[in-house]
Design brief:
Layout lengths: L2 H16 L3 H18 L7 H12 L4 H12 L7 E9 L3 E9 L2 H14 L3 E2 L9 E10 L5 H10 L2 E7 L2 E7 L3 H10 L6 E8 L7 H16 L3 E6 L5 H8 L1
Antiparallel strand pairs: 1-2, 1-3, 2-8, 4-6, 4-7, 5-6
Helix pairs in contact: 2-3, 2-4
Length: 248
Amino acid sequence: MSGHNKWSTIKRKKGAIDAKRSKAFSRIIKEMTVAVKEGGSDPDSNPRLRLAIANAKGVNMPKENITRAISKAADKDSAALMEVTYEGYAPGGVAFFIEATTDNIQRTVSNVRSIFNKYNGSLGTNGSLSFIFDRKGVFTIPQGTLVEDEFIMEVIDAGAEDVVLEDGFFTVTTAMEDFGSMMKKLEQMKIEPESAELQRIPKTYTKLDKETSQKILRIADIFEDDDDVTNVFHNLELTDELMQDMGD
């Protein structure tokens, strides 16, 4: 399995765990809030909101929670949220790319810097890691009754760069610019993905010993536990042994 497929698989497995926690809901509510502020509360005319709603359904968010979040976001007095990114290095030279949504940038950057410092890492300048990560569209789709060969042909025609079937789920990867067209293609096929998001996929990976790798994964978890952080990406090579440990 190629590196980015391993990454997508572990993100999905971790997503299944996250779905059991309120953190998953809070992340999606923030995404819906930003989407409504940007493009209004009608999902038919707001593709970003439509995507956020689809992801909410993917983690079984109750319909009333979705409706309430959209209504609250449409209130002109609701808090303004900003999307920010941070880049830095953890021990062993592992690159980290952090995405956050916040109503207080000072608090967020202070928390992120504190985590890097506490675990002997360093916060870098924005853009310093752009050569390491590619932004890709990643779709997770339950196989259900889909016929593998037929489905793969359809999504390749729509711009898929890679399609992997594992554990009953298709992981479809596209270039960032093909993300919207793939969403439209899936809508035409009446397929609702379990998740659809832009991820930062490493171009190169850093391989470390098991003990150090486990420390890096612990740092990733600490970042993800921060209330403002929405996504954490890194370029640690996920060996089969690490994948097994994370899947347990």
